[in-house]
Amino acid sequence: MTEKMINRVFMLRACFSLFHIKTAESFQYRLAGIAGATTSIIYAVIEILVYGIFYKYAENSAGLLAAMDLKQVITYIWLAQFLFLMQPMNVDSEILGKITNGDVGIELCRPLDLYFHWFAKIAAGRLAPLIWRGSAVLLAGFFMPSSYRMALPVSPSGFLLMLVSLFSAFLLCTSYGMLACAIRLNINWGEGPVYMILLIAGVLSGSYLPLVLWPDVMQNFLVLQPFAGYLDIPVRFYLGLLTVENGLWAIGIQLFWIVVFIAAGRSLMNRRLKKVIVQGG
Length: 281
Prior knowledge:
The protein is mainly alpha-helical and 281 residues long. It has helices at residues 3-26, 30-57, 64-67, 70-83, 93-101, 104-109, 114-142, 156-184, 192-205, 219-224, 232-239, 244-274. It is globular, with a radius of gyration of 20 Å.
């Protein structure tokens, strides 16, 4: 084994240890998790009420019921509240602090690749709320009264494909979060534009409105753009809108965008680090 390969193995082990430590730290904030889960559950119930009224009075309107029935929409809402937790809605607070107070200089002294060091931290920050807060949301969805209850998976194969797609979505969200960090690095124009970039990704993921309910003319664009992989594609497998026969291409699209975001984020970060300015003593 060459020295380069040995270094990579040690780097991966170090990043995995950081991921493990950060995940364990995140589980300490149980009260915040309970509060967040309560907010998600209330928000889901309100959404279901709104969609219920909408479907009742839009019955037999052109195209609406053909896309998804109300039960599928209810299930979509609960899963969206669950998967929303791993989406990057801001730059990780710990990393943002290091960027703004100059601790990036200290980070560069560590014998680790900074991109994968921060990648491990962001991934851990997404995983803990997904397990702790998300499991509470899913349990609430399954034990609600029948008119508010989420449905079981359409088939075992659809559920397995949903799990594979969910893992890809996790990597996709993390890699896009790292791209946002790389954009924020070494700039002085504040947080607003970065938040706008992340918000647009959230809207195009289907978090606020299922993508299949968007206008027909946009459907081809919506399934090919990267942010459908955050949420919409895993949920389609769960609902049976994508199957083994007609849906494997969607996982391929997720993998493609993961590679694009990692390559873009790593390249941008390397360029920014060459020009980084650390002020102070």
